[in-house]
Specification:
The complex is a heterodimer of chains A (526) and B (494).
Chain A: H1 2-29, H2 36-60, E1 70-78, E2 83-89, H3 93-111, H4 121-140, H5 144-153, H6 155-165, E3 170-171, E4 180-181, H7 182-211, H8 218-226, H9 232-249, H10 258-265, H11 268-293, H12 295-321, H13 326-346, H14 350-381, H15 392-395, H16 397-410, H17 418-430, H18 438-466, H19 473-476, H20 485-503, H21 506-524
Antiparallel strand pairs in A: 1-2, 3-4
Helix pairs in contact in A: 1-2, 1-4, 2-3, 2-4, 3-4, 3-11, 3-14, 3-20, 4-5, 4-6, 4-11, 5-7, 6-7, 7-9, 7-10, 8-11, 9-11, 10-11, 10-13, 11-13, 11-14, 12-13, 12-18, 13-14, 13-17, 13-18, 14-16, 14-17, 14-20, 14-21, 16-18, 17-18
Chain B: H1 13-31, H2 38-50, H3 52-61, E1 66-68, E2 73-75, H4 77-103, H5 108-127, H6 131-149, H7 156-187, H8 192-202, H9 208-225, H10 233-240, H11 243-267, H12 273-296, H13 301-326, H14 329-361, H15 372-375, H16 377-391, H17 398-410, H18 415-444, H19 458-476, H20 482-493
Helix pairs in contact in B: 1-2, 1-5, 2-4, 2-5, 3-4, 4-5, 4-11, 4-14, 4-19, 4-20, 5-6, 5-11, 6-7, 6-11, 7-8, 7-9, 7-10, 9-11, 10-11, 10-13, 11-13, 11-14, 12-13, 12-18, 13-14, 13-17, 13-18, 14-16, 14-17, 14-19, 14-20, 16-18, 16-19, 17-18
Classes of the chains: A mainly alpha (526), B mainly alpha (494).
């Protein structure tokens, strides 16, 4: 037993967490399409084993040394450019890794009975698994090139998920003569935006490589960066391109426009995975790479990031108030919530970055759940138009109750997971790292505070329109199905987590706090 | 008193086997009856396969360069790896061709004869180290293609494309020769190392004559590698030629041209790199933009791939261009050759997909390919892998190709390199739009060919799986290209 335990703690464990899903996808390729059930079972099995392994990893993790990279190893990969298969986790990446493996399992459970047209379980299941490999890999990669490969690996599956299973309604889009199907427009827009960011990000990585000591290793670059190796115009440019790559993914205003389209068009599981995990790749990139490697530039850019975040919060909330489409409303709410995450990061304090970490996890759980529920409702009602919905509590009591709960969590009700991220981000912005422009940050804080009010406003308004009141006549005598067991199996764990993290935020902080403090001390000296 | 000339036959055994196969195919064509002409295809396939054996042996044993014919012909790891590439591409082109040639009623022997001759030319270019040998190699490689591109005699498009190709090809040969004649006129030598020595002795490296010669050679080879402004023949010729020949043109002929360019510019003109480097940087950037922006407009898949291959040529050229300015030729050559090799297989795969889908639908309009992936998921997966690899999306091979180019461009922090890197990044995004469009149409659009059966014959499957394996492997384990770095170092030590 000990030898297996040793092997798992020497990199095999997290390698399996990364590559088991891919293995599952390969196995599925060889199962005939008609064996629907077998395909789903194999998918669920590989995702579940992956999740269990990630739990083993979490138990092996030494929380007293959460600021160090653990359980990893370093193997030669591309010798000629000194890029290695270097992996490991610390307190910052662990919660996100667990979130990723967990949400993937739930997404697969949900997909057992809820695949949109054209059903094709084989295609969807293999895409989910490939996507999971990309997401898990990004969170454990400690080499810039390895990070880049995993970061980009998520693009193809998500592109096809949106494009094949997405929303088929036609809409007119500026620049196109004819109306196009939402899914076709949204999928390529998602792809082009992200690639645009990451193409420049790669140039930035190369810049670090050549100015540093010809290494892509993130720990080594962090050492170099905190000893002031990257300065001047060069470093400003590198930070700018890294910012571009990560900010598109987050997404930060004004680079967010792909997000509402992608979310509206994506099938339910696609939306869930996109909101819960893919967006985190961007904010994680800031915490893992941009801040510690380029601390001086992070300081210089922090006010700009804070302002953009504040605009994102206000803009997202106002846009929500203008929506008639339920999914689009939740998509815009993501812009606002990720604004809080970025506001926390921009404060460059341990409180702010801890807020960002718990905000990321909470947003993953809560918005993931919101997309599950809204997707399911769209499936039941065949519309997402909030003007036509109403009286949901009477028609679908279980779904309605869960929607009510999740909306409360999303608006940051104390005692639920969403509260900590928002509250502490504002706290961080009130008192940013010394030397940063106090006026800018306090203004951003006020804007963020106004944003919380607006957030409460649009979510309550949404509940009023969708959940409360009398059902519209068109629904009265229809046979509408409330949440089934697959749906409840996917949703209830998220509800439990929302409450748990809300009451015991230490579940997250216990892992992140030391690592964040270490990051802040090393990079910004306090 | 004549010294006895001893020839290391083992070192040129690949070339000899190809020559033997050439003679064999044309003789068999005279003897065999129409019914048994398929034997010629078999013979050509065997011949190209056997010519690969010495490559393996040479790669394992030749740690030093073998110099033949008084310095005119050099076999080193660099040339060995490229010869292997040329032979493999020709082999795959034969496989692609089998169905096409058999559907034609005549000219079976000549087809293989001409393709093998072109291969021989490419092999010669890889080892040539003097003006005459390299010129003969270049022309032997491209001459047969004039005929092959007009092979579909009944089709006016094929005739038009072949004539354009021929006229511009002759012009380019003349330009190259004119450039060479200037060099010879100044130095009186034909072997590269002697030319360089003489130019150094005369102090003429930076002289206008040498620069003019470089520009003439560049213009001539520019046609072969279809970079802007010498690219205009490519879309028409590609469209008219039989598909296997188009694939060969865009992969092997292009590689031969690039190889000639690399040899000439890094072995002869390297001292004046500061002057021609800027020109190449401009050409490279403009080629990317024009190729990609034109490809965006195309409905015809072959023209789309033609413009895409023009844009890709811009990428391949970029590291050499910047190396000219910085003088870091070793790195530039390594990057270009790595790109060229990965590009060869993914582009061959892309042509395979187009071949399959055109045969299935009979339509050369990509917008009429809606939903075809449902009829043949294998073709659909091929399309996704090869086209997204061309777009440079990890973990497919194309990403590493783009990566080494970006790496080389930024390596010295030279301002032109950085600018070209930015241009490349923008172009990678533009290119994604049309590469993704193919996958979008066949996977996401509604079916309009539900009854159509998409057949993939066995030879095509072999081509598909070999290209697929190489495309994916080179993306996941790019370490295998480390050997190239070594090979490029040897190239410069000899």
């Amino acid at each position: 037993m000990t030898s297996i335990g040793n092997m798992l703690s020497e990199g095999l464990g997290i390698s399996l967490v990364v590559f088991l899903p891919l293995l599952g996808a390969l196995i599925i390729l060889f199962i005939p399409k008609t064996q629907d059930f077998l395909i789903k079972i194999v998918t669920l099995a590989s995702a579940t084993v992956t999740f269990l392994l990630s739990l083993v990893v979490a138990f092996q993790f030494d929380y007293s040394k959460a600021h160090t990279f653990q359980l990893g190893n370093k193997l030669t990969w591309i010798e000629s450019i000194n890029s290695n298969y270097e992996i490991g986790i610390d307190g910052i990446s662990l919660p996100l890794l667990l979130l990723s493996t967990f949400i993937s399992v739930l997404a697969i459970i949900y997909s057992f009975e809820h695949l949109p047209e054209p059903v094709n379980a084989k295609g969807m299941m293999s895409l989910i698994l490939i996507l999971e490999t990309g997401m898990n890999g990004t969170f454990v990669a400690l080499d810039l090139i390895l990070f880049f490969v995993f970061f980009e690996l998520v693009l193809l599956p998500m592109y096809f998920m949106i494009g094949i299973w997405g929303d088929r309604t036609k809409r007119s889009v500026a620049g196109f003569k004819n109306e196009v199907e939402t899914r076709l427009y949204a999928s390529i827009k998602f792809f082009v935006f992200t690639l645009f960011g990451s193409a420049f990000m790669l140039l930035g990585f190369l810049g670090l490589y050549f100015r540093g000591s010809k290494t892509f290793s993130i720990p080594e670059l962090i050492e170099l960066g905190s000893s002031g190796a990257f300065t001047g115009t060069f470093a400003t440019l590198v930070f700018a391109v890294l910012f571009l790559g990560f900010a598109v993914k987050v997404p930060m205003w004004p680079l967010h426009t792909w997000l509402p389209d992608a979310h509206t068009a994506a099938p339910t599981v696609g939306s869930v995975l996109l909101a819960a995990i893919l967006l985190k790749l961007g904010s994680y990139g800031f915490v893992r790479i941009a801040l510690p490697i380029l601390p001086e530039q992070a300081k210089a850019w922090a006010p700009a990031i804070a302002i953009l975040s504040a605009i994102g919060i206000i803009y997202g909330s106002l846009a929500c108030l203008a929506q008639t489409d339920l999914k689009r409303l939740i998509a815009f709410s993501s812009v606002g919530h990720m604004g809080f995450v970025m506001l926390g990061i921009s404060s460059l304090t341990s409180i702010g970055i801890n807020a960002a970490m718990i905000g990321m996890v909470a947003h993953g759980i809560i918005t993931g759940l919101l997309f599950f529920i809204s997707g399911s409702m769209a499936h039941t009602y065949h519309t997402r138009d909030m003007g036509r919905l109403g009286g949901n509590m009477k028609l679908l009591p279980k779904t309605g109750a869960l929607l009510g709960f999740t909306a409360m969590a999303s608006l940051g009700l104390p005692g639920l997971a969403g509260f900590w991220g928002e509250f502490m981000a504002l706290l961080g912005a009130y008192n940013p790292l010394s030397g940063l422009n106090i006026t800018v940050f306090r203004t951003s804080m006020v804007a963020g505070a106004i944003g919380t009010v607006l957030t409460a406003g649009y979510l309550l308004w949404m509940l009023q329109r969708v959940n409360l009141g009398e059902p519209d006549e068109e629904w009265v005598n229809q046979d509408l199905h409330d949440a089934d067991n697959y749906e409840l199996a996917a949703w209830i764990p998220l509800v439990i987590l929302t409450v748990l993290i809300g009451i015991f935020p230490k579940i997250i902080f216990g892992s992140t706090n030391d690592a964040v403090i270490n990051l802040v001390t090393k990079a910004f000296g306090g | 008193m004549e010294a006895e000339i001893s020839i290391n036959y083992l070192a040129i055994s690949s070339e000899l086997i190809v020559i033997f196969t050439i003679v064999g195919t044309i003789s068999m064509d005279l003897i065999l009856t129409k019914k048994s002409k398929y034997l010629i295809a078999l013979f050509a396939l065997m011949g190209s396969l056997i010519s690969f054996i010495p490559i393996i042996f040479q790669w394992a044993n030749y740690s030093k360069a073998i110099v033949l014919f008084e310095g005119s012909y050099v076999i080193d790891k660099f040339s060995i790896i490229l010869k292997g590439l040329f032979i493999l591409i020709t082999y795959l082109t034969f496989l692609l061709s089998i169905n096409f040639v058999e559907s034609d009623t005549y000219y079976e022997g000549e087809y293989y004869f001409l393709l093998l001759s072109s291969l021989l030319g490419a092999l010669v270019v890889a080892s040539s180290r003097d003006l005459l040998t390299i010129f003969i190699g270049i022309e032997l490689a491209s001459g047969p293609m004039f005929l092959l591109s007009g092979w579909r005699k009944g089709d006016p498009k094929s005739n038009e494309g072949a004539i354009k190709f021929f006229l511009l090809g002759v012009l380019s040969a003349a330009l190259i020769l004119y450039g060479f004649s200037l060099l010879y006129g100044v130095t009186g030598k034909i072997i590269f190392s002697e030319i360089v020595a003489t130019l150094s002795a005369l102090g003429l490296h930076q002289s206008p004559v040498v620069l003019l010669s470089a520009i003439l050679v560049l213009a001539g080879i520019g046609f072969k590698i279809s970079v802007v402004p010498f690219h205009s023949w490519a879309p028409d010729t590609y469209e008219g030629a039989p598909l296997p020949i188009t694939a060969y043109l865009s992969v092997s002929s292009k590689a031969t041209g690039f190889l000639a360019l690399i040899i000439l510019f890094t072995k002869v003109f390297y001292e004046s790199g500061g002057s021609w480097g800027i020109i190449l940087v401009l050409i490279s950037g403009i080629t990317m933009f024009i190729g990609n922006l034109s490809a965006l407009q195309q409905k015809n898949p072959i023209r789309l791939l033609a413009y895409s291959s023009i844009a890709q040529a811009g990428f391949i050229l970029a590291p050499i261009a910047v190396a000219g300015i910085t003088g870091n030729y070793k790195d530039g050559v390594y990057s270009s050759i790595t790109y060229l090799i990965i590009y060869a297989f993914m582009n061959l795969g892309a042509f395979l997909v187009v071949n399959i889908l055109i045969n299935a639908t009979g339509s050369e309009n990509i917008y009429e390919w809606g939903g075809l992936a449902k009829n043949s998921p294998m073709a659909g997966i091929f399309a996704v892998i090869f086209f997204f690899s061309l777009a440079g999306i990890p973990p497919l091979g194309g990403w590493f190709a783009k990566f080494v180019v970006f790496r080389s461009l930024l390596s010295t922090g030279e301002i032109f390199g950085v600018l070209l890197g930015v241009v490349g990044a923008i172009n990678a995004v533009i290119a994604l739009v049309y590469y993704a469009r193919i996958s979008k149409i066949i996977w996401m659009d509604s079916s309009i060919h539900e009854e159509k059966v998409v057949t993939i014959t066995n030879p095509l499957k072999v081509v598909g799986f070999i290209s697929l394996a190489l495309t994916i492997l080179s993306g996941i384990f790019p370490g295998i290209f480390a050997n190239l770095g070594e090979a490029s170092a040897i190239f410069f030590s000899s």
